[in-house]
Write a structure and sequence with these properties.
Length: 221
């Protein structure tokens, strides 16, 4: 019997730190992974190669705070709702009267942020590690209420097809695209292979607001 839901949040962001999943990548790629570091001006920040330090204060981490209580600087991750384990999120769902949440990845320090990784194999390892962690550790705590979306890479059609198949094997019912399956911000005819594969798998496809525009676009119209 299908689960009956009274109230579902269809646009939730899983603002978790990269240390939650980055340990899953092969040791040779770990130096490329994003990580949490102290910010020189106080509070926490995220570091990734090819980008300036990203202060945690700007990661949409304002849950449970009024405007008067929100601080733009000196924010510590451990002080913020929603960044803990799955059990914490389930408790917060109960407090909010929410039966389940559709979980998009990090809004600011998610797939677009990870694309700063220069080594493509390391970047693909990051995508795979996040998807595996999300399915096997986080959503597995209560898959009826923690409805994760697999993340597609921004690289090539072959990479997207491979990750789509992997996400289906992990049990995801939907995925989120940050670019067209070919890796660019405009469509190509070859993308039809991805759309057909997703339809054959009955995989739901989502885009959050817009496609990402990081990376080299000099050869794009």
């Amino acid at each position: 019997m299908a689960t009956q839901y009274d109230f579902v949040s269809s646009d939730t962001h899983l603002e978790v730190l990269p240390e939650r999943w980055s340990g899953r990548v092969d040791a040779k790629y770990r130096g490329h992974m994003p990580r949490t570091v102290p910010h020189p001006n106080g509070g926490d920040a995220l570091y990734i190669e090819g980008a300036p330090l990203f202060q945690v204060a700007f990661l949409d981490l304002r849950a449970g705070r009024t405007n008067e209580d929100s601080r733009p600087f000196d924010v510590k991750v451990e002080d913020t709702a929603g960044v803990g384990p799955a059990e914490q999120r389930l408790q917060e769902q109960d407090q909010d009267g929410c039966a389940a949440e559709v979980l998009f990845p990090n809004m600011q320090a998610g797939p677009g942020f990870w694309r700063n990784i220069r080594d493509n194999d390391a970047y693909l390892a990051a995508i795979r590690a996040f998807n595996d962690w999300l399915a096997e550790e986080y959503c597995a705590v209560d898959p009826r209420r923690l409805l994760g979306l697999g993340v597609m890479p921004m690289s090539t059609l072959q990479d997207s097809l491979a990750e789509l198949e992997h996400c289906a094997k992990l049990g995801f019912k939907g995925i989120v695209l940050s670019a067209f399956p070919n890796g660019k911000v405009y469509p190509l005819a070859e993308d039809d292979r991805f759309w057909k594969a997703a339809m054959d798998m009955n995989m739901r496809l989502t885009v959050h607001v817009a496609f990402d525009r990081n990376g080299d676009r000099a050869d794009q119209p």
